[in-house]
Amino acid sequence: MNNKIFKYIKYLSYVLLLLGVGVFVYFVVASVLYPEPATEFPVGTVGNAMGVNAVALVLAIMFPLINIISNPKGAMRTLIGVVAMLVIFFVSYLLSSDAPVPNPAANGYFTNSAVLKLTDVGLYAGYAIFVIAILVILWGEIRSAVKKG
Fold this sequence. Notes:
mainly alpha; two-stranded antiparallel sheet; 2 strands
């Protein structure tokens, strides 16, 4: 029974891959046919007309659920990763500032506090994730060198 499910999931992934390629080709063709989005082809109409947002949302929810059902041990590792990301974003939020910054283009200050706060959160979280990725790569290389030696 379990092998049947994986077989169907494999075929479904092939179908979705072909669907993704088709959507990509559609967007490329649409951008060639309608080169000026502001006048002839309003931004967002292609995705909304095809229901891409709804399909992406359904698939983004469906595939992790399939993964959790088929691999419960992996679900715990995924949960640990999600909690770690939430901690990184929470700490980044605590460190971020909404102080106005100079805006030379407008001869004044950029004062939108929500945008300033979210920008700082994104920057701090990006820095933290980058440092963690470098440390994990180094740890893996050192560990494999010690095991071989």
